[in-house]
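[Amino acid chain]
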Amino acid sequence: MEELAQYRQIIKDILLPYTQIPYSHGDMVCKPIFDEIHDSYLLMTIGWDDKTRVHGCLVHLDIIDGKIWVQRDETEDGVTYELVDAGIPKNRIVLGFHPATVRPHTGYAVA
């Protein structure tokens, strides 16, 4: 399988199970938003927690220049570990939520 297609499938395989986890409170869902044309993959939390509207990004991954950029990850353990466990080399993962000056010290790709 072509590397890009493989990365896309791995991302979807990792993110989709999160949409099946029920929230312990409120009336909320985790909605997947996958855009393979622009290679952006998001999990959005949408709904109501009592009288408060909830609309936020739980996870945001992009594929940019053949690398997976973790733009946001608010999961408990972190999807980055799941990407590595699925066979994505650390040098193909960029922790985009860190400043460029910090990335060389993370053990992952810098850009």
Q: What stands out?
A: The chain has a mean pLDDT of 96. The chain has one domain: 3-20+27-105. Residues 42 and 60 are 4 Å apart (CA to CA). Strands lie at 27-35, 40-49, 52-64, 67-73, 93-94.
